[in-house]
Amino acid sequence: MDNEVMSLKDNLKGIFDGCLTIPNLMSVIRILLIPVFAVLYLKGYIWWSVGVLAISGISDLLDGKIARRFNQVSALGKMLDPVADKLTVFALAIVLFLQFKSAESSTMQAFAWVFLLFIAKDIIMILGAALLIALGSRPVAAEIYGKAATCVFYVVMIVIIGFGPEVGAISRSYPNLTLPEPVMFVLVVIAVILTFVAFISYLPSSVKQIINNAKAKKEEK
User: What are the backbone dihedrals phi and psi of residue 168, each rounded to the nearest 5 degrees, phi first?
Assistant: First the structure.
C-alpha cells in the first residue's frame, strides 16, 4: 500500500467498505451527543451534561473492544473514533473557555486562552488527515501517546467540571470540595503538554506517507 497511490474516489470507497457496524454506530452516537452536552452545560444543567459526557466516555471505551471482539474493525471506524474524540475535545475546550472568560476570578479569565491550544492542535490534525486522504493515503491510527493524552484530557476536564472553582457542579453545592486554582491550572498545563507530545508523535508516520506517495507518483509517470 505504501507504494500504491489511490485516487480520491477509490480511497473514499475503501474507507466506507464494511462501515455498517455497531462500533461505528456508537461513534456516530458519540458525535451526536456532543451538541447535547454543550447546550446542557451552557444552559446550567451541569449534572445532565456530566451524564451525557459519561455516556460518551463509556461508549468510547466499549466501541474499540466490541470492534476487536466481534471482528468489526473497519477503515471508517479507525477514522470515526478519533474524529469523535476531537469533536468532544472541541466541545469541552469551548465551553470551558467560555466559562473561564466569564468567571469572576481575573486569574481564571487570563488562563482561559489555554483551552484554545487544544482546539488549535485538533484543527491542524483534522486538516492533516484531510490532506492525507486527498493524497490517496489514510490518516495515521492513534498512537499510544495519543490515547494516553486523550485519557488524561478527559480526566482533567471531568475534574474541572466537577470540582473547578466557579465552574464545578459539585463545588457549587459543596464549596469545601472546590479545587484550588493553582492545582487546576497545573492539571490543565499537564494535559496541554501531553496533547502536544501526542501531536508530535503522529508527525513521523504522516510525513512518511506523504513522501511515499510522492515517490509512487513519480514512478507512475
Answer: -80, 140
Residue with grid cell 488524561, as numbered in its chain: 152
Residue whose C-alpha cell is 486538516: 127
Instruction: Enumerate residues 6+ apart whose C-beta is below 8 A from 15.
Output: 75, 76, 79, 133, 138
> How remote is the C-alpha of 1 from its chain's centroid?
27
Q: What is the pLDDT of residues 161-184, one digit of tens each?
A: 889 998 888 888 889 999 999 999
pLDDT confidence tier of residue 186, bands split at 50, 70 and 90:
very high
- Report residue 37 CA to chain centroid gap: 15
Confidence class for position 143, pLDDT limits 50, 70, 90? low
Phi, psi of 141 (to 5 degrees): -65, 155
- Cα–Cα distance between 180 and 158 in angstroms, integer? 15
Q: Would you give the distance in Å from CA 138 to the centre of its chain?
A: 18
Read off the DSSP letter of residue 206: H
- Find all residues with CB under 8 Å of 193, minimum gap 6, and list them: none
Domains and CATH numbers, the chain: 8-220 (1.20.120.1760)
> Under a CB-based contact definition with an 8 Å cutoff, are residues 86 and 63 in contact?
no
